[in-house]
Design brief:
Blueprint: E1 7-16, H1 20-31, E2 36-40, E3 55-57, H2 65-78, H3 85-105, E4 119-120, E5 130-132, H4 135-149, E6 152-155, E7 157-164, E8 175-182, E9 188-198, H5 218-226, E10 230-231, E11 237-240, E12 243-244, E13 248-249, H6 253-258, E14 262-264, H7 272-275, H8 285-297, E15 303-306, H9 312-321, H10 323-331, E16 340-343, E17 346-349, E18 356-357, E19 370-372, H11 390-412, H12 421-431, H13 442-453, H14 456-459, H15 464-481, H16 490-515, E20 530-532, E21 538-543, E22 554-559, E23 573-575
Parallel strand pairs: 1-2, 1-9, 2-6, 9-19
Antiparallel strand pairs: 3-5, 4-5, 7-8, 8-9, 10-18, 10-21, 11-17, 12-13, 14-15, 15-16, 20-23, 21-22
Length: 590
Amino acid sequence: MSDYDPVNVNVDVLVIGGGLGGCRAALRARELGASVALVEKAQVARAGPMTYVHSQFAPDRLLEGDELNTWVEEFVVGSNYLADQDWTAMFLRDAYFRFRELIDMGVPYARSPDGNLKYVKVRGHKIGTTLGADGRACMEVMRKAMKRARVRLFEKVASLDLLTLDGLHPTKEGVCGAVGVHVQTGVPHVFRAKAVLLCTGPFYPRMHYAFSDHIPGDGHRMAYRAGAELAGMEFGQFAAWSYFNKTFFTPGQAKIQGIGAHFKNRLGERFMSGYDPIWGEQTGLIQMARGIITENIEGRGPCYVDMRHVPTADIEMLYQVAPTVGRAFKEFGVDPARDTLTVNPMMVLASNSSSGLRIGLDGETNVPGLYAAGACTCLPHMMAGISGSAISSASLVTGYRAAGAMAARAASLGRLPRNTRQVDDAISAFYAPRHKFRLTRPADAHLEIGRVTGEATFALFKNAARIQHVREELARIEADLLPKVYAPDLHELVKAHDARTYLEVCKLVTSAMLERTESRAELFRADYPFRDNDRWLKWLMLSAPGEDLAAPPRVTHWDLPFERWPIKPPRGIEPSTYGVPERFREAQSA
């Protein structure tokens, strides 16, 4: 246990996570008269995925009728026909109004020389438009707005677990707050609330890539323990192709694709149309990475990104809205008007297009009182999709809508119970590694998880045997390595907690990968190298099976209601455009 007495906070609405959706939810709930606390593991506007966002999907006009359906169709096709069409239509209608509000609040979106907003395209869109802005500048505007609205802000507080009305995990009654710990002082914080919003972002390993090191899947783990359904977890594989010249990484991949960069192999061929005939060089991250890797394996590598033909004004706009790209190019002496850059992808188990809490139109989950927004959700408009700008936009829309539902719930409820056992259990579990005296450190656990999940035959050419092998290895790490982790200080305690969190999320991801017997979007299975539109046009959901949270998850399906949706899918079997190279064929039976 901690050496300090906890800080106790009672509010109507608790927001966990200070990204765009979390901040917008907090502001809206305050507008509706609710008392609000926002808890952020780092600092708002200083860390997290939103500080690296450079493009936000924003319709340039209010969409209605046939035009709305056309924009919906772009998302549906881009999502491999798994998008929730009701949710997508809502998102597209609401996004116009939400961005008008951000513009009025002073977010510095890019503008043309005539002063008008500059709407452009990015990866995954031929029709839909985006606005460009440095994500950190956007979040500074939101931070100041929260200060003015007197949102109670708790920074450097890591949330450990959700509190429930009945004291159970999973709960039968609903959530009523959360317990956390200040990552610099160690002081526990107990938040009691009538409604809780998770906006905790995606899940990533600790790999020193952009914003990833401190977001192992906290919201996913807490929600699963509380009984929330997780959808799309089988698509939990992230790829990045922007490891340039085997020297440096940058974010900004969607924007680089959006300004029309060409991707070429050693022979000078632009190869992506052969792998994705619909989207070509505007394809998703995982598709681009797999294409580059296949070119390399089959002897046509190395591969390059070529921006020498891109107008200077577009390069300058890239640097304006994605300043990390400009800084990196300057530091490493790259001039995109003159130089091509080699690209070398990497793949890890992490969020990409979906993989998170299943939510409804108002961000509600199946657990009473629990809501979610942003990249910790399954992103119903993108499920297995390729949009390069629509995650933060969906977080904005969902945060606003969820705030209305949460404020109404808070107004209808009386006082909440004071649940102490869950608080004690969460704090004790967090501090447990401090009381061990072994040589195993949190970094050892992170490295071992990365080694197991990063094996090429699993990352690239999954099959039932390989997935099962990784599941068994994760179970070994959980049983043998994690109990030996020693953390002598708070910094190491946070790393230890993150390792356990990421491992538990990886177990859920591999469970879902084993269940979906086809190849679609981020999931490529060498034993099922085709898209099966007759059996798998449905969502796969995981939830806790009962009080034994270590038991395998309960698996359910949602057959998508295409009979009432306007956009109809193809039928039959579609062979994957990504084959299994001859030298890796043995992976199908390994």
